[in-house]
Amino acid sequence: MLPENDLDRLALLHGSDKFGSHFYTTHYHACFGAMRAKPVQLLEIGIGGYDDPNAGGASLRMWKDYFPSGHIYGLDWYAKPGLEQERVKTYQGSQADPVAIAAVIGDNPDRAFDIIIDDGSHRSEHVIASFLMLFQYVKPGGWYVIEDVQTSYWSDHGGNSSDLNTPMTSVAFFKQFIDGLNWREIHRPGYTPTIFDQTIVSIRFYHNMIFIEKGTNDIPSNFVQNNRVPTAV
Asked: Which of 31, 64, 68, 210 is deepest in the core (most CB within 10 A)?
């Protein structure tokens, strides 16, 4: 597969596997291309390079070049001080640890991110925990992305290939938000929308990736009122 856009080329330049062994940059460019000139605040969970403090960080450098006015943050289980540079900062900790998450949030002057990417452990319980903690810190108009969701079907990563609807796996967990997109159409008088019902405006499922767009999901139904079907006159 040949590179087709700037992000493809930057992934190759910096040695990121988001192009080549994966095919993620096509989707990223389609969703993020309009944001390139903005001072984007981007957090990526998972830096790479394992326990070598100077290894990994290919995608952090890729994002730095893709967003020339952006600030890039990386969180990894291992300390990565050797990868820091202008507009790139790294943090050590578990993606499921509220203390580690709070440290990253507290250091961000906006206390929020335009983009959060989960390329961490890929364990379902960690993916779900990170989302529940971090989605509230995505800015309106921003994106939360989960990579490598094939592990949702792998038992050694907390996945399940027998019951595809168990909420304990990452893919099944995110499937539930599809109904939330249409919460105003649900025929259940007294229904109280969740914060996810109210703030998720689109979900895109790709092979091994999920994109969740943040916004205000307040478009009214053209028929249902207060989650009750009107009585015909």
From this structure: 210
